[in-house]
Amino acid sequence: MRIAVITETYPPEVNGVALTVQHFVQQMLGLGHEVELTRPRQVQQGVDAAEPGLEQHLVRGLRIPRYPDLRFGLPSTRLFRRHWRQRRPDAIYVATEGPLGWSAVRTARELGIRAATGFHTRFDDYVAHYGAGLLTPIVLSWLRRFHNRGDLTLVPTRELLEALRAQGFRCVTHLARAVDTQRFDPRFRDPALRSEWGAADDAPVILHVGRLAPEKNLDLVVESFRQIKTRVPDARMVWVGDGPALAELRRQNPEHIFCGVQRGNDLSRHFASGDLFLFPSLTDTFGNVTLEAMASGLPVVAFDYAAAREHIHNGVSGRTVAFGDSGAYIQAASQLAADRAQRAEMRLLARAAVASLDQTQVAQRLLDLLAGDAARHAA
Is the pLDDT confidence value at 375 over 50? Predict the structure, then answer.
C-alpha cells in the first residue's frame, strides 16, 4: 500500500503525537509499504528524506503561540491535489487538526481517497488551562466537524471511544498503542546517573517525563514530592523534558533536578534509573510515557483514565486513583515512595503488564483500518 501521512509535528520534536506518528511511519515502512509524509518545515529538520520507502514533503508553517519550537502547517490543498493526482495514495492518515490537516481531509474527500484521522489531543480541555475556558464548546465543535469529515477516527482507549461517540463523533474506532520494550527496559538502569542526581542506592528517585506545560497538572507532582520528602527525606525529584512551565518550576523548586530533553539511549537510562513515575495529567488522550515507564520497570501513579485505566492493575503494577482526586493521588504517591518492598515487586509486574504490546501488530491493525479491511482482525 501507499499511505499518505499528514502531521503538524514530527521528530526531532519531542511530544507524544510526534513520537506516535513516527512509530507508525517506521512500522509501516518496516512492513514493506510506501509512506508519503507531509509536515511543516520546522526549526530543526527531521528524518532523512532519502530513507527507503519514505517520501517527504515539507510545507510552510507558522509558530504556535507559547510553543516557539513548534509550527502549524498552512493550508495545502493545491499541493495535495497535484501530488495525489500524480501518485494516488491508497489511503491517508491525518494526525493533527490544524489547517494542513483540514486541507488534506478536504482533498481526500474530493478525490475519493479513504481518510482516517487520529484523535491525539484534547484541545477542548487544554483551552481552559490557558485562560480561555469559554471556548471549550467551540473547540469541541471544531474537533467534531473535522473528524466527522473523515471515514474513521482512531482513538487509543475504549474510554475515549465511548466519550467521543456520546459527543456526536461518528465512525470512531479503537487503535491500541504499543511500546518499544527493547528501547525501554530495566537493563538501562545506570548507577552513575543516579550518583549524579545524589541518589543513594536505597533512596527513591521520583521521575516525571514529558512536556512541561500548564495543562499537564504539574503542581500536583510538586505537592506530591513535598509530601514524599516528609516520609523519605533522601528522595530525589527528577524532571525530564522542556516546555513553557520549565522556568517557573525551576524558580520555585531549586532542589529538584531538571535534565532537559533526552533522546535515544539517554532517555532509556533516565527512565530505568528512576524508582517511581508520577503522571498527574487530566488532559492527555493516552499518555505514552505511562507505557514507557512501565516497560522500564517503574510503578506509575496516575489518575484512573487513559493509558493508566487500560494497563495499570491498581495495587499490583502501579497505583490509580479516582479522576481528579488530588488528595488520593498525593497519598498514593507518598505511600508507594516510602514502601521499597512494594515498589520492588511492582517493578517486575509493571514490566510484565506491557511486555506483549507489540508495535508491529498495532501497525498492521492501522494498515487494515486504512484499507477498510477490519473484518480480518474482528475474526
Answer: no
Average pLDDT over residues 78-96: 96
> With bands split at pLDDT 50, 70 and 90, how would you rate the model's confidence at 62?
confident
Of 216, 212, 211, 237, residue with least CA distance to 226: 237
9-20 per-position pLDDT tens digit: 998 887 888 999
Closest by CA to 210, choosing from 159, 245, 250, 181, is: 245
**254 conformational bin, left if phi > 0, alpha if psi -120 to 50, beta if neither:** alpha
* Beta-ladder partners of 34: 2
Per the document, the length of the chain is 379
pLDDT digits (tens, 9 = 90+) for 32-53: 999 999 999 876 554 455 678 8
Torsion of CA 270, 65, 124, 152, to 10 degrees: -80
Please tell me what DSSP assigns to residue 284.
Answer: B
> Cα–chain-centroid distance for residue 253?
26
Same fold across 2-178+358-378 and 186-354? yes
Whether residue 268 contacts residue 185, with contact meaning beta carbons closer than 8 Å, is answered with yes
The CA-CA-CA angle for residues 200, 204, 210, to 5°, reads 120
CATH entry, 2-178+358-378, from 3.40.50.2300, 1.10.10.920, 3.40.50.2000, 3.40.640.10? 3.40.50.2000
Q: How far apart are CA 351 and CA 267, in angstroms?
A: 17
For domain 186-354, give the fold: Rossmann fold (3.40.50)
97 vs 77: CA distance, rounded Å: 15
d(CA 256, CA 228): 13
Q: For residue 310, which of 298, 324, 294, 297 has the smallest C-alpha distance?
A: 294
- Rg for the chain (alpha carbons), in Å? 21
Distance CA 311, CA 360 (A): 19
Distances (CA, A) of 302 to 54, 298, 372: 37, 12, 35
Phi, psi (degrees; rounded to nearest 5) at 171? 55, 45
- 172-209 residue pLDDT tens: 999 999 999 999 999 999 999 999 999 998 899 999 99
pLDDT at 47: 47
